[in-house]
Write a structure and sequence with these properties.
Helix 5 packs parallel to helix 7 and helix 16 packs antiparallel against helix 17. This protein has an eight-stranded parallel β-sheet with strand order 1-2-3-4-5-6-7-8. The two termini are 26 Å apart. It has one domain: Alpha-Beta Barrel (TIM Barrel), CATH 3.20.20.140. With 350 residues, the protein is of the alpha/beta class. The chain binds adenine and zinc ion. The site of adenine has 11 residues, from helix 4. Zinc ion (ZN) binds next to strand 1.
C-alpha cells in the first residue's frame, strides 16, 4: 500500500485540484449551464418560463430530489439538434479537464429527449462525438451510461433499450435514475436482466433518498456493479458490511446531497464515515450546473467541512479509478499517475 505523506493545509486545495481523478456520477444534462439553456432556447425557439439567466439561477432553490427534477427536465427541453448535445457535453469536458479529470463515465437520459421527438441518433451522435473530441483534444477518456427513468414504466425502458441498440458501440452500460421513492429497483428487474445478457455494465441510483432496502434490491435483483449515491446505507450495519467486504463502489455526490437536503450541512455528511468503514467511496458532481460546483468544488467543500487531508484525497482518487469501468491496464496507468502526483507534493527539507 502506498504511504501518503501529509500535505500542508495551505497546499491541500492545489492537491485536490491537480490529482488525477475519474468522475463516475455526472448526468450530462445536469451540466447544462443557464447561459447555454438560454442560448439554445433562443436558437431553437423553445420557450422557458424564466426571463433571464439570473432569474433561472434564482429558481435553483431545491427542497428535495423531485423539486430539482422538475427544473432539470425543463432545462433539458432546449436540447434539439445533434450539435446541442455536442455543445453540452464538450462544455462539460472542458470544465472536467480543468479539474484534472482524466476519465469520465457520463449518464444520459434518452427518454427525456425521445419523448419530445428528438431522435436517439442525435443524442448518441452528439454525445459520442464530444467524447471522441475530448479524448483527442483534452486527453480525457470517457464512456456513456444510458439511464432509464424510474418514474416511467419498465415497458418504456424496454422500448428505449430497443431504440438504443443500433448505437450499442456508443454506450457501455445502463443505469437507473429520476424519482427514487416509490420506484424500487425491482420494478426494472426484467429490463436489467436483458441488459446483462447484452454484456452491458449495470449501475443504479439507490439510497439517495430511498431506504437501504433499495440498495439491497439494486444489488440482488438487478445485479449492479456500483451504487449511485448509496448514502442511506449508513442506516443498515449488515449492508455496510457487505458493501465493504465486496468493495461495491458508492458514487457519492456531496454538493448534490446538500442542495437536495439529504444532509442539512456538509459537516453532517457521512462520506468520511463510509470511507473509514472500508467502503469504496468516490466523490462526484451529479448535476454540477444545478448544485453549485463541478468535481473539484465537491472535493474542496467536502474536505473543508469534514477536516479531511491528503490520506483521504488519495483514497478517493484511488477509489475513483478502482470503481471505474476502465481496463486493468488503464487503471494501472492511472494509479501510477496518482502516485507521481502525490510524490510531487512531498516537502523536500534539503
Ligand atoms: N437525475 C439527475 N440527477 C439525479 C439525481 N440526483 N437523482 C436521481 N436522478 C437524477
Ligand atoms: Zn445522479
Amino acid at each position: 500500500m502506498y504511504k501518503v505523506h501529509p500535505v500542508a493545509p495551505t497546499r491541500l486545495p492545489e492537491l485536490l485540484k491537480k490529482m488525477p481523478k475519474a468522475e463516475l456520477h455526472i448526468h450530462i444534462e445536469g451540466s447544462l449551464e443557464p447561459e447555454l439553456i438560454f442560448e439554445l432556447s433562443k436558437k431553437n425557439n423553445i420557450a422557458i418560463p424564466y426571463k433571464s439567466v439570473d432569474e433561472l439561477r434564482a429558481a435553483y432553490a431545491f427542497t428535495n430530489l423531485q423539486s430539482f427534477l422538475d427544473i432539470y427536465y425543463a432545462g433539458a427541453s432546449v436540447l434539439i439538434t445533434e450539435d446541442d448535445f455536442y455543445a453540452m457535453a464538450y462544455a462539460y469536458f472542458l470544465k472536467a479537464a480543468k479539474d484534472h479529470v482524466v476519465h469520465a463515465e457520463l449518464f444520459f437520459d434518452p427518454q427525456t429527449h425521445t419523448v419530445r421527438g428528438v431522435p436517439m441518433a442525435y443524442v448518441m451522435g452528439g454525445l459520442s462525438r464530444a467524447a471522441k473530441d475530448a479524448e483527442k483534444n483534452l486527453g480525457i477518456t470517457s464512456c456513456l451510461i444510458l439511464c432509464f427513468l424510474r418514474h416511467l414504466s419498465e415497458e418504456d425502458a424496454f422500448k428505449t433499450l430497443e431504440e438504443a441498440l443500433p448505437y450499442r458501440e456508443h454506450f457501455i452500460g445502463v443505469g437507473l435514475d429520476s424519482s427514487e421513492v416509490g420506484h424500487p429497483p425491482e420494478k426494472f428487474a426484467k429490463v436489467f436482466a436483458k441488459c446483462k445478457t447484452l454484456g452491458l455494465k449495470l449501475v443504479a441510483h439507490a439510497g439517495e433518498e430511498g431506504p437501504p432496502a433499495y440498495i439491497w434490491s439494486a444489488l440482488d435483483t438487478l445485479g449492479v456493479a456500483r451504487i449511485d449515491h448509496g448514502v442511506q446505507s449508513i442506516k443498515d450495519p449488515e449492508l455496510l458490511k457487505r458493501l465493504a467486504a465486496e468493495r461495491i463502489p458508492l458514487t457519492v455526490c456531496p454538493l448534490s446531497n446538500l442542495k437536495l437536503k439529504v444532509f442539512s450541512s456538509l459537516a453532517e455528511h457521512n462520506i468520511a464515515k463510509l470511507l473509514e468503514q472500508g467502503l469504496c467511496v468516490t466523490i462526484n458532481s451529479d448535476d454540477p450546473a444545478y448544485f453549485g460546483g463541478y468535481i473539484y468544488e465537491n472535493f474542496l467543500q467536502t474536505f473543508s467541512a469534514l477536516g479531511l487531508g491528503a490520506g483521504e484525497a488519495y483514497a478517493f482518487a484511488h477509489n475513483s479509478f478502482e470503481a471505474s469501468f476502465m481496463s486493468v491496464a488503464e487503471k494501472e496507468k492511472c494509479f501510477h499517475a496518482l502516485k507521481v502526483c502525490f510524490e510531487s507534493f512531498v516537502e523536500n527539507d534539503a
